[in-house]
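Data deposition worksheet. Section B asks for the primary sequence of the deposited chain exactly as it was used as input, without tags or linkers unless they were present during the calculation. Section C holds the resulting structure in token form. Section D is free text for depositor observations; keep each observation to a single sentence. Incomplete worksheets are returned to the depositor.
Section A, Depositor: J.P.
Section B:
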Amino acid sequence: MSNTEAPAAISEQQVADYLKQHPDFFTRHEYLLDRLRIPHPQDGKTVSLIERQVELVREQKHELRQQLQHLTQAARNNEVLLQRFQVLILNLIGSDSMGQALGYIRDALQQDFGAEVVEVLLFERPGHSDGIHPDDPRLRPFSRVLQGRQPVCGHFSAEQSRLLFGPRAEEVGSAVVVPLCEDARHPCIGLLGIGSSDPKHYHPEMGTVFLGHLGSVMNRIFLAHLDR
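Section C:
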């Protein structure tokens, strides 16, 4: 090889790989920081690396501030929901009959929680023939809900909607189905259906903690009325 042969050019990827492997490079060569220039993401003007770092810190602080505001608002909303939920529970505990308890449920969900359609489908029990038999084939599409014993949100089939919401099924674009169950030792006694005309109002990613608790409370209160 000739002594005058030019060295091979270094690629950008080699430079990037070297800097990754030697993160202290600019600590040992600080004078280079002032010579680096980076286009500003908004106006395209060239700024120094230090100026860009300052701008990044400002952007991160702004994002964190927004996240904190969202978390604070979510906490406030949950506090309001909890207060309304507590009022509903107290009303259910003080109800004198099944009819009154059902009235509290419908009124609270529609007036305080913005539900458009609210229906309760109870299962037949010994001594109580009202409702649908637990082994009725029409309940098979709800087997996953009943086995999971947790609320399910989203879109349901026309068959499921007709059984749960009856003549108002065509109004429902999205829904929540809450199994009225207390624990795995006891069978569920029915289903609570909450519907909205908005297809996106109830979706699988939404939280259902309060609704799960409501299903457990309704199970206990309804059993108390049915066993009288």
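Section D:
The beta strands are 37-39, 46-48, 117-122, 152-154, 174-179, 190-196.
Residues 49-93 form the longest helix (45 residues).
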